[in-house]
Amino acid sequence: MEPQVELSKTRDFGEIISDSIAFIRQNLKPLLSAFFVFCGIFLLVTAVATIMQQIRLSELINSVDYTSEDRPSFSEFGLETAVTLLFMMLTYIAMPLTILSFMALYKQKGNVAPTNEEVWGYFKYYFFKILGSSVLNGIVLIIGFVFCFIPGIYLYPILGLIVPVIIVENSGYSYAWDKSFRIIKENWWTVFGVLFVTGLMVSICSLIVNVPFQAIDLTKVYLHQIKDVHLTMVTVVLGTVLRQMAMVLHILPMVALGICYFSLTEAKDGTGLMDRIDQLGNNAADTPAPAEEY
C-alpha cells in the first residue's frame, strides 16, 4: 500500500507537483466532500445568478431586430452582476480556506483525513480572518500591478503563502506577511513555478469545458443576425453548471500551495522534525491549534 503523503518534508519542484497529485488521489473522497459541503452554497448561488443573467441576456439578444434602428439596452444587469461578483469572491475565499484547513487537520491528526465536522471548526473560525486577509492581499496586488506590473508578479506567490501561514499557525496577518517573505527567500522561483504550472493545468482543463459552450453561443448569436435563430436555455444552463463544477479543479493549485508552505517551513525551521521529536513516546490526544502569534 502506498504510504500516506507526509506534509512536513522538504521537496523540490517536481516532488511538490507529484506529491500534490498523490495527496489528492489518496484523500479524494473526503477532499471532494469537504469542498462541496463548504464551497457548494457559494458555487450554487453564483451559478443561479449567472444563469439568470444569461437568460435575460439571451432574451434580449433574441428580441433584437437587426433591421431596426431601435435597439434594446444591454445595461440592465446590475443586480445579477453584483450578486455574481460577490459570490464569486466568496467562492475564491471559501475554496483555499476549506482545502488548507483540511491539510492543517490532516497534519495535526497524523496523516489522517479529517471529518467535515472538524473542517467546519476551522472554517468558521478562520473565515473572517481569511476574508480580511484576502481583501488586503487584493489591494497589495492591485498596487503592485499598477506599478509596472512586475511588482505584482513578484508579490503573487508571496501573498499566496499568507493564507496557509494564518490557518496552520493560527497567526495574524502581520506575522504571516513577515513569515511569507522569510520562508520564500531563495525559493521564489519554485513557488511561482508550482503555482504557474498547476494554474496552467487548471486553465487548460477549464477551457475544454468552456470552449464548446462559448462556441455554441457565439454561433447562435451570429445565426440570429442572419437567419433569426434564437438562443436556447439548455446551453446557457448546462454551460453555467459545468463551468461551476469545473471549479473543483482548483483543488490542485491549492493543495500545491499548501505543500509549498509545509516544504519551505520544514526547510527553514525544521518543524516536522521537531514535532516528531516532541511526540516520541507521547500518545496523548491531538493538541489544539497554537496560540496566535504576531
Description:
This protein is mainly α and 294 residues long. The protein has one domain. It is 76% helix and 0% strand. It has helices at residues 13-26, 28-62, 78-108, 116-146, 150-160, 162-169, 173-184, 188-227, 233-245, 251-269, 271-278. Helix 1 crosses helix 10, helix 4 (116-146) runs antiparallel to helix 6 (162-169) and helix 8 (188-227) packs antiparallel against helix 9.
The number of helical elements comes to 11
Kindly state the percentage of residues in helix.
Answer: over 70%
Strand percentage = under 5%
Task: Give the biggest sheet.
Answer: none
Give the tally of structural domains.
1
Q: Gyration radius, to the nearest Å? A: 22 Å
Oligomer: single chain
Q: Gap between N and C termini, in Å? A: 42 Å
Shape: globular
Summing up helix and strand content along with how strands pair, one would put the structural category as mainly alpha
The ordered H/E elements are HHHHHHHHHHH
Give me the count of strands. Answer: 0
Low-confidence stretches: 283-288
What's the average pLDDT?
A: 84
